[in-house]
Amino acid sequence: MEFNFTGSARRERHINLGGTREASAAQLADQARKLRLERQAQKQRTSAATKIQATFRAHQRSLEFRRRWADELAKGTWDWNFGKDWEHRSRLLVFSWPSSTYSSLHANELAIWAQHLPSKNQLARNEALISLVVKMMLTLLIRFSTDLGSLGAIYIDTLLQLISSSNTVELQKHFAEKMISWDLFAALHEYMSSLPLKRSSEASVCLTLSLRPLAIFQGPTEAIAESEHDTDAPLRARALRGLVGRMFTIPTLFPRLLASSITEFVAQTPFEEVSKHILGLGSYVDVTTRDDALPSNPVHSPHLLANYLALNSQRVPHLTAKALTVYLEVLTLLQNILSVNNLVKLENEYKQKHIPSSENTMEVDSDDQDALQQRSDSSDHFEIESSFPAKPNLSLDSFDTTTSRYLRLLVSDANIHALLLQSTRFASQTRAAFCAYLVATLQAWPSSEGEHVLTTVLYGYDSAKRTPQAAHVPVVGAVVRELWRGYIRSSQLARRVGNASFAARNFETRKALTDISLADQWPMLIVLIQLYGRALLTMGDDEFFPTDRLQTNGKNPLTLDEVVTLSGLLRNLAFILYWQQDLLANDTQPAFVPGTVVPLATLRDSATRLLQQIHTRDARRKFTPANHWHMLSQEDVSSFIQSVVVEEREMTGAQDSEDLQTARTRHPSLSSRTLAFIGPRLNILHHIPFVVPFEVRVEIFRQFIRSDIERLHISRDLFAFTKRHRATVRRESIAEDGMAQLNGLGARLKEPVEIVFIDQFGQPEAGIDGGGVFKEFLTSLVRQVFDTDRGLWRANEHQELYPNPHSYARQPEQLEWYTFLGRILGKALYEGILVDVKLASFFLGKWLGQQSYLDDVASLQSLDADLYRGLIQLKNYPGDVENDFALNFTVTDEEFGVTHTTELIPNGADIPVTRDNRLSYIYHVSRYRLSRQIEPQCRAFLHGLSELIEPRWLRVLSREELRVLISGTEAPIDLQDLRAHTVYGGYHEKDMAVTYFWEALEKLDPDSRKAFLRFVTSSPNPPLLGFAELNPQFAIRHAGDDVSRLPTASTCVNLLKLPAYTSTQQCLEKLRYAIHSDAGFDLS
């Protein structure tokens, strides 16, 4: 209540004379905080300045004392025999210079001290002081190894003296522990690397010093030290880590050592512990990606592998089973990590960067080998190849040629033989490790070196089980037989992958491909695939097929039943890797065979090659059960065909647009999932088509052609408004006129072609070509141009044709004929017209893209049987090949009486064929005869063929199946099938004349029946899927009642004009006369 009422109703104004408040409470608090922080910072600056000043004064004081001590050390006269003087000088030496200022100028003072070591008692009293001097020595060795010169040797001698056996055990352990902690092995590595590349006592003393800690810290130990500074590891493990990581990674280690030191090093190095330590370090590495969980892991150094080989390769004949296994495991690990392919590339880089001189170029001389052999009775000599092609891979430190020379011991004959023989002695314990080593070698080295290794193992020497007289006779395929029967056939891997149950085989195979528990079994299967595939390359069919299915013939290491079982395993393996392509890669990384660095894609390719080789033999001479190769159920067939045709359309569309992605956007109905589903099917058809039934593949081939016709909008309707190519051909010049008028069409030959024949009087023959006249033209043309008298073709002893290797056939005009003939046979396949021409098997293989011939020697049999038999004799000859055969690496050809000599390899005329290189000679001869000699002719022919038939369409077939597609099956003619698919004109199927005709056909022998089929269809062979596919169907027309007339035929429409004969015998006689004299050929 207001008590001071003044009589006014207006509120009284209040005026604050203190002014308005400019800062809020928050602002005031912020200002206080800033002031507090500023006071705190000022306090810290003051404290820091005090510390800096104190530190600077201390540093200045320290420098003053150090200078005074250094002057005293330099000017003083010392009595080294007086203990106090020695101790005082030692302190001056240690404290005169900080370690950061060490330079080569201080080395002399340290060397003077090192030359006056006191007695054991004084060492014991001053071990802490001496340890500091030791640290100084090691620091100088690491930093200035290249500048120390002879002073470095004094340091090494001093360090060795400190931990020599002349001192007490306690002193040895104390100094050894300090040296290991202060990088003894790093110092030795730097110093030895700085020495000139020649043998020296200094390097030998370094090696002796590196072994002393192992003698001081007794073992053995199973522990693994991650580094020399790993205090959690035992000192012996740290010493092993230093030896492996530092000494074994010195480039050209052994050529630097005296021979006596090498012998000492070999004797004193704990082989098993070193090997296990390397394996322990390798456990930190993922060999498939080379990711390493351990920094500075020495297993990545090629010098480690080279020095390990140099140290231990001569031990092999004396290794126990356990030691051999460990040795093989180390070599496998290091090759997997390094990928030796890259080492040659790095060697070449090294040579480019370094100018060769007597000082930096070294050879492995006999002293190394002699010293390494002092602990081995083996007289094996290592033959080292000079060069091999490089493949890009890792980026490792460059290395010298001596390291490369040691690395090539891995693929040398002597090393492979020694490992094979020793592994044979302990086969049950070491075969898995030996196979893993072979797999790593094949994967790491270039294919040329891999082939050499395979040949060495395949034709290895099993002297442990043979008489001295037979010690040098090759045992062909003994390892193949042993691997299959002793390890693979009954293994869990074979049981799972070779599962015969159709429902379970894909599931079990997929599981086996990712099961790490099978890691020790996969390498043996991989080696078997490689070895047996290599054996089949030079194995003829007469060697492959034994007289008894259950026995071998001495050339084929497996029986036929074993081959069937092996092929079933490979079939399942290859099929699942094509069918389920997601197995081949995981995210962005390829997937690998368990326990190896072999990509699954590489395994698939290897299995596919061997599978193709076995199937090729089976196609020539059946030995597998019915349906052995098939992998599709009846339910899958229809969807398989549809999917393959869709994928083919996609590929064709992509080729037309030159952009697969664009092609797929034009087909939005095909999702990526659908494309992933159908893609593997086309891969299966291209690589292992025989797993799909032949009838299905023929239907797929025809579907490809139908799709192509639809894509090109080609109509075969006679009355359709479609462009038709017209050719006028004289009957007496069918080949020349056909070539002149049709060859220029190229791929347009797919379109309808209308033929008009000109008779002998120059008049066009009556009639309209509805397809039959063209068929007659095609048949007549093939008969003329495939005649060997024209000079384009040559026939083997089975009258199978292949391009003439004569130089005449390589002339441009003749090559154009080959192109035309390729188009003509392509047109016959495109139209489904059978032609009467039989081509050699090896030539058909070229149609399928088999340029690397799966079985060269067996293919050679289809070209020149005499040459084939001669090469087989050479391969199996037990005597003196060089003198008895007197061959060299050349071939001779004679043309028009003139002999030409061709070298198979560079300087082949100067290289004799010997026992060791005869397989190479056989291979080169086969390649020359099958490929090089007729390459231009084949290239021209296949160019013309591919214009009408896509090469990938043909790859769904084998050679023998392709022959059937071209000229029909050679199976006996099924008269019941022919009769069931016959149409009649003017006759009824129950007329007597028709009955007499079929009875007469029944009485014809098989050859006469084929002659009859040629008489009416122009081809002696029936269609591959029966007469239901003959187009047009076989027809019989009434030709009147005059029984004196012969039956005639119109081959263009598969028509037989049959008079109404009155008896079976009469019909039989007329048929025989007509078909064997061609008297019935008539187009009326």
Automatic annotation (TrEMBL):
Protein's UniProt keywords contain Ligase: no
Catalytic activity: S-ubiquitinyl-[E2 ubiquitin-conjugating enzyme]-L-cysteine + [acceptor protein]-L-lysine = [E2 ubiquitin-conjugating enzyme]-L-cysteine + N(6)-ubiquitinyl-[acceptor protein]-L-lysine
Keywords (A to Z) from UniProt: Acyltransferase, Transferase, Ubl conjugation pathway
Sequence ranges assigned to domain HECT in this UniProt record: 743-1084
MF terms in GO: ubiquitin protein ligase activity
EC number, UniProt record: 2.3.2.26
InterPro entries referenced in this protein's UniProt entry, alphabetically: E3A/B/C-like, HECT_dom, Hect_E3_ubiquitin_ligase
Chain residue ranges for the region called Disordered: 354-376
GO biological process, one term: protein polyubiquitination
Top enzyme category: transferase
Record Pfam families: HECT
Entry keyword annotation includes Acyltransferase: yes
Record's protein name: HECT-type E3 ubiquitin transferase
Organism the protein comes from: Malassezia psittaci
